[in-house]
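A reminder before we start the practical. When you read a complex entry, don't treat the lines as separate problems. The point of joint prediction is that each chain is placed relative to the others, so the output describes one connected object in space. Small molecules and nucleic acid strands, if listed, are placed in the same frame. In the example below there are two entries. Take a minute to note the order of the lines before looking further.
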Amino acid sequence: MAYRYDHILIRYGELSLKGKNRNQFIKQLYDNVRKACTGFPSLEFEKQHDRMMIFLHDEDENQVCDVVSKVFGISSLSLAVKVKPEMEEILKACLEIFPLQEEKTFKVAARRNDKTFPVVSDQINRMVATTILKNSNWKVDVHNPDYKIVIEVRKDACFIMTNKIPGAGGYPVGVGGKAMVLLSGGIDSPVACYKMMKRGVHIECIHYASPPYTSLNAQEKVMELARLVSGYQGELLLHIVPFTNLQLAIYQNAPESYAITIMRRMMMRIADGLAKKRHALAIATGESIGQVASQTLESMNVINAVTCTPIIRPVVCMDKVEIIDCSKKIGTYETSILPYEDCCTIFTPKNPVTKPRIDKCEKYEQKWDYQQMVQQCIDQVETIKITPQKQEDDLF
Amino acid sequence: MIYFDHSSTTSVRPEVSNVYSQLLAQQYGNPDSLHALGRKAHALLEKSRENIAKMLHVLPGEILFTGCASESNSLAIIGYALANRNRGNHILVSNVEHPSVMHSMEWLKQFGFEIEYLPINSNGIITPSLVKERIRKDTILVSTMHVNNEMGAINPVKEISEVVHSIPTCVYHVDCVQSFTKIDVPFECMDLATISAHKIHGLKGSALLMKKKKVKLMPLIQGGQQEQGLRGGTENAPSNIVLSKTIRLALEEKEEVYKRVSKINQYIREELSKIKGAHINSKEDAIPYILNISFDQITSEVLLNALDQRGICVSAKSTCSSHQKNYSSTLVAMGYSEKIATHMIRLSFGKDNTMEEASIFIKTCKEILNQYGLSL
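Here is the predicted structure of the whole assembly.
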């Protein structure tokens, strides 16, 4: 029988530290992994108390690894070969699955879960190493091996594994409740989405569109960003708020320097309304202290004042460079820097206030019935379901 | 959907696309092949070349099929300059040409060619007297467009050609993409001329370069002996064959469409003059197919988006972004203010546009101004 990698072993991340909620966390992770792997119909899944196994059958191991390594809540994964718990089979499999014609270094680490197995661990190490050394140019290096061969002998089967592939870490998405993330189209907000999901929070995104001041290109860009981050939780709801009328009202009623501050306050009010409607427990933004006028601590105070819902700012203390690095890592950077206007950049005042005062905001806001317009925005929101796979056209 | 963007591209006539799909299915031979299918394709291709030559009043050997107008422009400019270095190295070009012309010129600089840009006047044209003033004994090439793509200004190509030909070693290249089949194009006074199929209800990926017999070029694409060895690569026979029909049908309708389009143009001009803040940037004597306008209250991009939302397609040169200043160089070169240049949109009409569409356009503009116009 020819051996090839036919299993993926998944090790749980931080969630293995959890006490009573542990089972719930594992179940969520199990569901998330299965959902992420819907593109591979022949996979089989098995959850154990300390780890999870995927039976690959005919699927390509590297493609499955790519998908699984993006699921939060996993500390690492390894490709594994299942063999009969017999010494002869173990040695045979080792010769088949490793690229022995190359020059590599290795180390063997065997473990007997089944203490009735006749060969002790140390003896397994020696036998496997001897076989490899005799049949290849490989050398032993116990400190920095290219291949760390882990052999795990159980009662019913033996697993041979090589190097650990790092997982995405964090908690399984969904165990941390739901939050609404404001998605602008810039570099920061997709990173905020990523960080929220990494802590196990299921997200829905809100985008404020101001056509014709913003183009459909800008909206498509946001949909693409949502698609790029949606892979971390399976699918994602994007709420597009028709913001034009409210933005025009702000422009007409507030002085230029306060326009952005009041716009942000309106956005928060709308986000708050949508959060209630969607049963989300928090609002998240891509704000970072001092990056622009509306992101000073003074501005944050004034903007925060319109809601009691927690506002989480996952990138608040990150440098722009760090945020950019993260956006490159998650693959959103190239899309974020496409040059389309979003509603924040339209009425950019020459001198926005960096230290706005709340009493002034309230005074300007009293000049018109903004509550009704905010409600209209909430009522007329357009919700789009975003899935990680691009919808392919019949044309191609 | 109201399509006022015919200077960008046009729909393909059903007559053309029908013949084209027939050819694709039946006449797929390589014109260079020696078997029956190849010979048939060759015969049809050469018949097309002959017919086009007749319509342009030039010789069949003076028609070169290319893949796009940008290729024609590049071949004309770079191909000519490199093949005629011995004549001199001074080139004159207008300062508002298509990027394929501009970039070809810039590219030539690395070979030591001296490129001199001729400024258009406030009417958007190059005057013959300016050419006369700048042309030198060592000027080997003058290149101007016939009709400006943003403003519709018509260059006096006949008069310019007389100046150009006063220097015996100088030739005249004219980009006729926006003029051909719309107004009379005097090919007899040009040495090189660019024409594109997709602007006249033909196929994309199809264009030609008219090259007078006496003009020597250096090929840009190396390959076989196709197109007199000036453009290597298997002939795109089906496209080149239907180009003949494309041109014939467009020329047959020329007068009639000109009248229809003039009426639409005149109507929009009149209606706009009644709207506060509206400007008509195209001059009265511009080609009626192109109408450049702007409104003080609304920037190019916002107006374009708003019209787009209401199913009306127009062009704007570039975005007036809050981050970058990027505006119509033609308008600025004509002496218009930056504000006009950042607020302009271009309407370009075609054979299928109607007066009804024009009136919907005016109505829609008024609505948009009402709703989104700002006193910026």
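Discuss with your neighbour: Chain B touches chain A at residues 301-309, 319, 321-323, 368, 372, 374 (CB under 8 Å). What might explain this?
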